[in-house]
Each structure stands twice: as structure tokens, then as C-alpha cells.
Design a protein that fits this description.
The structure is a homodimer of 335-residue chains. With 335 residues, the first copy, chain A, is of the alpha+beta class. In chain A, a hairpin with a 6-residue loop joins strand 1 and strand 2. In chain A, helix 1 runs parallel beside helix 3, helix 2 packs parallel to helix 3 and helix 4 packs across helix 5. Chains A and B meet through helix 1, strand 2, strand 3, strand 4 and strand 5 of A and helix 1, strand 2, strand 3, strand 4 and strand 5 of B.
Chain lengths: 335, 335
């Protein structure tokens, strides 16, 4: 890959820079005038660790790298701002492949109002992406951390859960964009659910607008579900110094999760609580603002579901449908 | 490596956060209140591409990753602000090794007033570092791009050239922190020069204060010398739409470069003009402000040398000691 030529071709394809970007890619650094407060997050995606090239279109890999990074900004209630990409290119990925990957990224950037403001392209032994994203708010107090949940707050989650984990089961079983699924028992509505689960795993949606709506509606703590509901709830419990009680029956399961779980021999609630990578938002809210939050989030086209509450104490309790209780520690002091 | 445990140990060792950092590592994103304008740059360092573990102490690798990134901010005339690190850890690097690497990084961060505000640790097939750095200035106009050089401007360079390339020759020949040099003909003053060249290659210094001094003294264009003087001068020529004339005899050679070049059979001026990785700053200045710039840069302990001039036209001409002329194209439109 000729770095200069590739960068020139990338630049031609970039959507117009956002209002905060004074100078984009091509000098020693990008120049922005952020105003207010900035939230910055970094995420790496490495072939064989976070994804497999055989399971994804290249455009989906570019999409997912940016989506995963933007999801952290969504969890702060930030407005999407700028993204910077390090692309490590292995020998078997040519320039057209790089552009296909970056097209998936720029499409999501355009859709979320994110400016791709800079980057670095280098050789690497395997396909490597490191994303840095910056988001904005008028002041630092407008961002929602993991640390403000109070006993009595309602616990809510955006969208649907379990889809990404179910999608991973499907991919492990041979489904995917380049191979027909071996889940031959699925058809009709079930096949639609299967496709949703694959899309969840391969092309997650960062809940940027939903996060801003929740912040505006008074969310006291927020996190995106990357590691899995149980673990991420534990981060909020630890950072806020409270306990979280979750009722598993109330969890909004993604269409298709039940069917995939049945074929795979999994518990659908386990997929929803421990699977991770759904990139939905988990938030604590004063109960009197729940209706306002629900309206605001649903105006973005995403549902908002109350799944539990904040209590005095520590750690996470998930009440299972059969009457059992799953406990997770609050381990934010370590994360 | 346990990511959570490692991050907790890293956080204990971080110097205090800078005044712009409201919330450091540990939530979904770091929160800063930048004020004014921000310059952001990303750089990746990958084992086998940008460095070799066998040639470096781990602390030097951490140092160099941050130094290379900060050098881009120096070239903008920015004040160092925050750094974000993606650390991809291979199987044969344990937690203590990661901390040794990060100690080298935090030491440079402390010395340059940089806040390590966030990061991501992941597995990777080889040691992989991706750095994002943000620097600051009161307004976007205070930053110096590559694009403002004007015919008649003086061309200056900070510090000394050729050392990093000479250091690379030494390492390729078996010198280094863990192996005695095979350059057995070197001794006394020459051995001192050899050590300087190795340090140049393994632990480069970002010229942050020098860059700010040059910006304040009216630099019209600036770039850091990462690819080599000829190539980087070409970026300035291309971006500014001018020609650059450089007199090779005036180039400030690093102590030791002459001796290493002689033993290795290289031309010292070739090391200085094409070697790269010296991370000095090349700047254009109105000639009437040259004395002011020289005083300001020398007050930081670094010399400033006039090496040529900006002319109407395009591309780079380097006049060699023997009377020959090297020509490099202005190719910033591609870079």
C-alpha cells in the first residue's frame, strides 16, 4: 500500500468536515475549535481478537470500529465530533480493500455527523484498527459518567439485548455474509430474526441520539453495553457506590435471540446478560423523569425499557425467570 | 494480561492530570475542557515495522511512541495537552513488561506536561502502540501549518541531524542496549557520539518548547523531520506552493554521524537529508525575525541553524558539498 496515494484517495471520499474542524487530514495535526467540553475515547479492533475477516465484509469492519468507539461517546451523552483512525494494513489487503473498509467507516461517520479528521496508515502483521473519537457538550457537567446513580433511581436500557451474542453463535456455526447459515431449521420470521442478530454483531449502531436524549432527561449514570449487561452494570455499581437490581424477565430480547438460543442450546437470558457487544445504553434515571426519557428516546426510533432499579448497597443482582438470582460484583475500581 | 488489573496499576503510576482534564481514565471517555483551539495527531508504532523489541528497552519503546506523536504537536507550535494510548500486548509480554513500557511513556509525559488521559489495552499478535495526542493554543491561527511559507523566508532547523539514521546503522550492525557495538574502531569522543546517535534513534526528543518558540517568533510554516529532511521539505514546498533551497554544508550534523558514516561507508549528508526520525523541526521564518527565533529557541537549550531559503517555484533543491544538486519533488498534495 502506498500510504500517500491511499490517503489522497481516502481524502477525496471524505464527507465535508464538521463546523468544529478548522483543518482536516494532511498537515502534522488536525485543528479543531471544540468549545465547551470534550469527551475522548479510544478503542482498538484487531483481527483474530475482536473480529474475523472471514466473518465480515471489509465495510462492516470499518463500520464496527467507528461504531464501537462512538458508543463510548453515546454513553457520555455527547454529541459526536471527530474521529481519528490508525489503520494497520496486512500484506494480503490491497488498496481497494482499504477503501472498502474506510467506505464503511465514512458512511457511519456521515450518518452520525462525525468528521474523520485524521489518521495514520501503516503496515501491520494483521488488520489492525485503532480509533480515537472526540465528542462534545456545552460544559463538562453535561456529560453523564458512570458515577452518579442514586438509590431509588430507575434502571433503563435502550433497544434490544442478546442479538450480538446470538449473531456470534451464528457466525461460529458458519453463518455470515459469505456463507449460508447452517441453522437450516430457521425460516420465515426466524430467518429475519437471524439476520437481525448477524447485523447486531457485524454492524452495531452507536446510540448517539439516544444517549443525548437520556442525558437531557436527567440520567444520573450511563454506560454502553460492550462487555455484557452483568459486567457493565457492575461498573456502574462500583463507580456510583450503589447496588443494581435487574429483573431478567423485563429484559428486551432482540428478535431472533430466542430461536438462535434454542437451536444453539443456550439460555436466551444468558445471551442477553453476559453476551456483550449489543452497544445499547444502560442508564439510571430519577423515576419521576422516566416518562420524559421514554418519550425522548422513542422519538429517535429506539425503545426504552425499565429493567430494574438502583438500591443502597453494592454489586449487581439479576433475578432470573426461574426464581434464581445471579450476582455480579461491582468492579469499577478496577476497570 | 488482565486488562482491569493492568489499568489499575497504570493509573496508580500516572502523574497528576493537567488543568484541562476534568475526568481521566476509568469512565467511558475522558473529559477535558480544552478552551481555544486543539491540534490532534495520531501515530502507530508496530513491532517489526517501526521498531524492534530486540533493539530497545521496553521503556524506550513507550518513550518513543509518545515522543513521535508529540513531535507532530511540536510542529504545529502547540502546547502539549493530553495523550491516549492503545496498547496491543503480545503473548510474550507480561504485566511487568507492560508497566516498564508505560513507565517510559509516563516519564516523558511528566517532562512535557502531557496528561495520559485514557487508553485501551488489548491482545495483539505483536507489540502494537497507537497514540493520539491533543495539543492546545489560544486560537487556531496560533498553530503553524505546512502551508504558509513565502518566497524570501529563511529556512531553519532545530538541533542536529543524521543521528537517528546513524543510530539505526549501529543497531543494524549489532549495537544496542543489550549488545555491545561491533564498531570497535570507535573509542573516546567517537564512542560518545555513537551513544548520542543510538539515543537519537531509540529515545527521540519532541521539540515542544522549540516549536512554541518558533510559532511565537512568526514561523510561517513548520514540519517535524520524521521521514527525512528531503521528503519533509517536499511536504512544505507542496503545501505552501513554493520552492525550498537547502545548502547541505550548513546542515548541523549530530556528533558521531561523521564517524558512523565513515565506518558504515555512508555519506554523512545522505544520513542527514534522507535518514529521517531525527524529529527536529524545519521551519520557514521571515528573515527579519531570525535573530528573535534563534534567541527564543536557544533559550530552551537547543540550537537553531539557518540551512536555506524559500524561493518562488516548486520542489526542493539540496546543494551538496561537492557541487552537485539533489532534487526532491513537492508532494504534499499526496501526503
Amino acid at each position: 500500500v502506498g500510504e500517500f496515494e491511499l490517503l489522497a484517495r481516502v481524502r477525496e471520499r471524505l464527507p465535508q468536515a464538521g463546523r468544529r474542524t478548522v483543518l482536516g487530514s494532511g498537515d502534522d495535526a488536525a485543528v479543531t475549535v471544540p468549545g465547551g467540553a470534550t469527551a475522548t475515547s479510544v478503542d482498538a479492533l484487531i483481527d483474530g481478537v475482536h473480529f474475523r475477516r472471514a466473518w465480515s465484509e471489509l465495510g462492516q469492519i470499518g463500520h464496527k470500529a467507528l461504531a464501537v468507539a462512538l458508543s463510548d461517546l453515546a454513553a457520555m451523552g455527547a454529541e459526536a465530533g471527530e474521529a481519528y483512525v490508525v489503520l494497520g494494513v496486512p500484506e494480503d489487503l490491497d488498496e481497494d480493500g482499504c477503501l472498502e473498509l474506510l467506505d464503511g467507516m465514512t458512511a457511519l461517520a456521515a450518518r452520525t455527523g462525525t468528521t474523520l479528521a485524521g489518521g495514520d496508515v501503516t503496515r501491520a502483521p494483521v488488520l489492525t484498527l485503532a480509533m480515537t473519537v472526540a465528542g462534545h457538550a456545552p460544559s463538562a457537567d453535561d456529560f453523564v459518567t458512570r458515577a452518579g446513580a442514586r438509590p431509588g433511581d430507575a434502571l433503563v436500557v435502550t433497544g434490544e439485548l442478546g442479538g450480538a451474542a446470538a449473531g456470534l453463535r451464528l457466525l461460529e456455526d458458519g453463518a455470515g455474509p459469505r456463507a449460508p447459515s447452517r441453522f437450516e431449521s430457521l425460516s420465515g420470521q426466524d430467518l429475519y430474526g437471524e439476520r437481525l442478530c448477524l447485523a447486531r454483531q457485524l454492524e452495531p449502531t452507536p446510540r448517539i441520539e439516544e444517549g443525548r436524549a437520556l442525558a437531557a432527561a436527567g440520567a444520573t449514570a450511563m454506560i454502553d453495553l460492550s462487555d455484557g449487561l452483568g459486567g457493565d452494570a457492575g461498573h456502574v455499581a462500583g463507580a456510583s457506590g450503589v447496588g443494581l437490581r435487574i429483573d431478567a424477565v423485563s429484559l428486551p430480547l432482540q428478535d431472533g435471540v430466542g430461536e438462535v438460543a434454542e437451536v444453539a442450546g443456550d439460555d436466551p437470558f444468558e445471551l442477553a446478560t453476559t453476551g456483550g457487544e449489543d452497544y445499547e445504553l444502560l442508564a439510571a434515571l430519577p423515576p419521576e423523569r422516566l416518562d420524559e426519557a421514554k418519550s425522548a428516546v422513542e422519538a429517535t426510533g429506539t425503545q426504552l425499557t425499565r429493567i430494574g432499579e438502583i438500591v443502597a448497597g453494592e454489586g449487581v443482582e439479576i433475578r432470573l425467570p426461574g426464581g434464581g438470582i445471579l450476582r455480579a460484583a461491582g468492579f469499577d475500581q478496577l476497570g
